[in-house]
Amino acid sequence: MQVVLENLPQILEGLKFTVYYSIVAIILAVIFGLIAALMKLSKSSVLSGFASVYIEVFRSTPLLVQLFFIVFGLTGLLPLNEWFGQRSYPIIAATITLALHEGAYISEIIRAGIQGVDRGQKEAAASIGMTEFLTMRYIVLPQAFKRMIPPLVNQSAQTIKDTSLLAPIGIIDLVYRGQIVIATTFEPFAIWLTIGLIYFILIFSVSQFAGYLERRLQLDNR
Amino acid sequence: MITVENLRKSYGELQILKGISTQISHQEVVVLIGPSGSGKSTFLRCLNGLEKTTNGKIEIAGMELTNPETNIHDLRQHVGMCFQQFNLFKHLTIMENITIGPMKVLKKSKAESEQIARELLKKVGLQNKEQDYPDQLSGGQQQRVAIARALAMKPKVMLFDEPTSALNPEMVGEVLNVMSDLAHEGMTMVIVTHEMGFAREVGDRVLFLDDGYLVEEGTPVEIFERPKEERTKNFLAKVL
Q: Which of A123, A180, B217, B238 has the least CB density, counted as fewest CB within 10 Å?
């Protein structure tokens, strides 16, 4: 207990980074996911083909391999460390890779949400002269978004878990900080337990929030 | 106002419309009747391009719909439509449902659009429902809002696709009344309906469709009292 309390500031410093990477990754993932979903639903077979390749590649390979490949593998091909800086390239690349990975799942959530909107809504919009763009922007997406919120919050919980894979590639987060603390205190049980508890509190609250939203949206079913 | 020449529509092998030609003049009220599956709704939906025609020519308000160079969105501004299931925008208030077209498509100001909406809501008898959402309204009220939404675009033609079929019987009248008023104001209307009494009373001309063909057309008196074709007689014997 003593050892946990003494090292708590260090561990919480790691938590700060975990939360930070999670938020950035989720925001980027929603943007990537929305673009991929719209591409996949577009009439152009080139665009929808691109989107399919992206989604399938990122869903069918492990995140850890994706991280190693983009953070370390690509530097063997291009001088990325020189372009972005030795210290910042791994952080930027890892965050974007995480966002691309989550974005692949989010694009499927968004696509299902868009396709779940009643066809009559689109026809009504068309009948008053709205273009495809106006229909998507003002009629389809606002309605799709409501049903997408609970699965998006769940995917955010998943994203928080997945940030723990940033530690093996040397990015400071909750796990990485924990490992440093263990290396100096030789107390793996207490420290890993603490880290597990922190993740649990964080992720459990997010998924409870998703459940709450789901119930709210069912009551308020517009 | 509307010219249809040899209109054909098929889904793969299945032919829905098998060559329909007719003309509808300015301020005319045309009612389409016929058994289900006869192609009435498909015909109507072709008139604003919700269904792509397979063959033939449609001209509406001086624009050739079947010409690929015609901007379909421009054309639809002039052709209002009401659906069987109303299709009000569920996430918008009644006011927003009506103003979204004038604001986003016609680029009118919010104040001007709301002014138009208030006048139309008064006309359909729902001036106190501005801030409600569609699911708080009865079916009859929703359909009246849908009519107001279409009218807010100041269309030259109004299409009605079985506007009372999804309504409880006691609400049919309120919708038909609004439609009669519209007809008396001189709106050009094309109506698909099973309400034969209404067809007779309000229609200037009745078109009887069966199996993708325009079997017979004429004034309500001609069609309902002196039908010439055997198929028309059979159909009327069943529904009247």
A: B238
